[in-house]
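This part of the workshop introduces the protein records we will be handling. Getting from the letters to the tokens is the skill we practise here. An example says more than a description, so a record of this kind follows:
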Amino acid sequence: MTPPAGPAELRERVERFLAEHDPATTERLAFLRARYDAGLAWVHFPEGHGGLGLPQAWQLAVDEQFAAAGAPDNNPHSNVIGLGMAAPTILAFGTEEQKRRFLRPLWTGEEIWCQLFSEPGAGSDLAALATRAVRDGDGWVVNGQKVWTSSAHLARFAILVARTDPDVPKHRGLTYFLCDMTDPGVDVRPLRQITGEAEFNEVFLTDVRIPDAHRLGAVGQGWAVATATLNTERVAIGGRAAPREGGMVGLVAQTWREHPERRTPELHDRLLRLWVDAEVARLTGLRLRQKLAQGRPGPEGAAMKLTFARLNQQLSGLELELLGEQGLRYSDWTMVRPERVEFTGRDAGYRYLRSKGNSIEGGTSEILRNIVAERVLGLPPEPRVDKDVPWKDQAK
């Protein structure tokens, strides 16, 4: 199959596909599978893996064409980790067999993914994780505990980092796996948050068996694979596509317009500054997604995620001020385990409380500032502190 030479030919290919697979009469899953097989899922992925090897910039036009035709989507908000993190990592480090097995049902939404990285004793310092994977014949036996796992109660598979060699420096003793969440040794328990919901979970792994065929990358290469995943995660969290004045800043701007009686010069100045910050972040996100499409996710994603967290927290706080006593109301604190996080579809109280976690999830803001300082700005790393040496002697 010859890839389209330009956007016009790509549009014609989509039109032919829609003519052969009428969205009005084709069953949803059959339609999504056919779209993947036609290379119109991720157009920038290689042929045979949902794409046509085209620039990622062409993806938006393809998605818009399908949406205009009333075609079903793959419900991307319910599989953010799979689409934004697992898929790029499998494409970069997976074997051909792994790509064939996992990418298609991942894109169609038949299999939801979660991320088993953070641990109670190794949150910001991922390389200090203690979960062990021990070789056993043609597979591995995993024991340990993971925490803050989004969608673990819904996931079919997980991306997992475990320690396979405790006798080498911590960054070298890790290996990356694709874990079957239906294994009887996987125990998922909800973690109720300040919002009242439990979108996060803690996961206990007891003698979980993972075939070596589900190892991603070489043994001991887990840190390099995980770093690639984290770079794409930060772009997925902080660099999502949005229209101008979309997302949180759009909600606050709407509240400003609806409540002229609450306006003050100080609030006006704060709103304008945040609006400009949000627009700069949106345009920067477009550039980062183009780099990601070229297979070059870099540390700049840390800056985007850092900005996303700050903006969400400042905007949600401003929204409460504009709403006055109305902003103190909270519609529902019932314990539920949602399928997705939805900021824009909830009330202001939920947005204010939920945004507090933005500076923790996906890498804490403190860690991300170090990444930006050292890997983006080229500043020297902070000196290591020896707890056994008095501070006054270290300062000499």
Notes: The two ends are 67 Å apart (CA to CA).
